[in-house]
Amino acid sequence: MNAVAIPAALVARLRAARRVAVLSGAGISAESGVPTFRDAQTGLWARYRPEDLATPAAFARDPQLVWDWYAWRRERVAQAQPNPGHRALVALEGRVAAFTLITQNVDGLHRRAGSRRVIELHGDITRSVCSVERCEVGAWDDTGERPPRCPACGAPLRPDVVWFGEALPRAALAAAQAAAESCEVFLCVGTSTVVYPAAELPFAAQRSGACVVEVNPDATPLSSSADFRLPGPAGTVLPALLA
Ligand code: BJW
Questions:
Q1: Nearest atom (ligand 1) to Cα of 38
Q2: Same domain for 70 and 85?
Q3: Is the pTM of this model over 0.95?
């Protein structure tokens, strides 16, 4: 693939910005070997139906199937390592006064790369919570049962992720919206920009006056509105943009 040209005007804009927000999606972790959702060949939704695995109804119907699928993905994430795209965002955080990294990813790779101010909109696949809302799970013993049972109330545990039809964590969403509406530059990296409410954030940023930049090899619903579009893989484009 040819190197993506980085416009000098964008480099200057980013260097001058004091407030920067980033929205990342599965594409930034693709180069770490974590599958995206919507890639036509390798995406999770090309092989599995979201309504069978990523909804509260699916978990109620077949908790073991859902638990096992997430256990398999958790294994893959545990084996993955952060890539140059994740690391470029760590470097950016170090040089911007007010920096917010909003991620839809549940893989924890931004934190493992060293990013500090990370807002996880869709949860964290490595954590488990009680499937009964507001039941606080403490430490639980692994008895081998799948899914394991909540030690407090006996209900099945579930992965701490946000499924379709579920509300995003309120404080995380509010912080993401505030960052989007107050930043000067908003980078949208590796997301198909189709899942709401996260997909609304770049548009909200632009309405508030931010310069919106899309880093994605493929076009998305954001592409025609973005102020700059960098059509390449995050692991190459972000280090070049931030060099
Ligand atoms: C690269 C690359 C490389 C490849 N470099 N790039 C408004 C309109 C229509 C529908 C709705 C609406 N508002 C809400 C909805 C419903 C629904 C929704 O949005 N549906 C749409 C799909 C139509 N939203 C919800 O249900 C949300 N909840 C909600 O709104 O609740 C309301 C409520 C309020 C009060 C009470 C109750 C309810 C919840 C959404 C949860 C999404 N969950 C998932 C699963 C998380 C757990 C898990 O991991 O299993 O989140 S679905 C999945 O999609 C996952 C992702 O975070 C999310 C976004 O995907 P992402 O990251 O964009 O990945 P891909 O695969 O789509 O795209 C990858 C991109 O990378 C591609 O563009 C590639 O080109 C690119 N790429 N390689 C850079 N190397």
A1: 66
A2: no
A3: yes
SS3 129: strand
Among protein residues, the one with the nearest Cα to ligand 1's atom 7 is 196
Question: What are the tens digits of pLDDT across the range 45-59?
Answer: 999 999 999 999 999
CATH of the domain at 208: 3.40.50.1220
**Average pLDDT of the chain to the nearest whole number:** 95
Which residue's CA is minimally distant from atom 64 of ligand 1? 26
Residue 142 lies in domain:
35-79+127-161
| Tally of domains in the chain | 2
> Helices 234-241 and 8-16 meet at what angle, rounded to 10?
70
Query: Which H or E element spans position 227?
Result: none
Contact 150, 132 (CB under 8 A): yes
Q: Are residues 61 and 151 both part of a single domain?
A: yes
The 10s digit of each residue's pLDDT in 179-236 is 999 999 999 999 999 999 999 999 999 999 999 999 999 999 999 999 999 999 999 9
Say whether 110 is catalytic. no
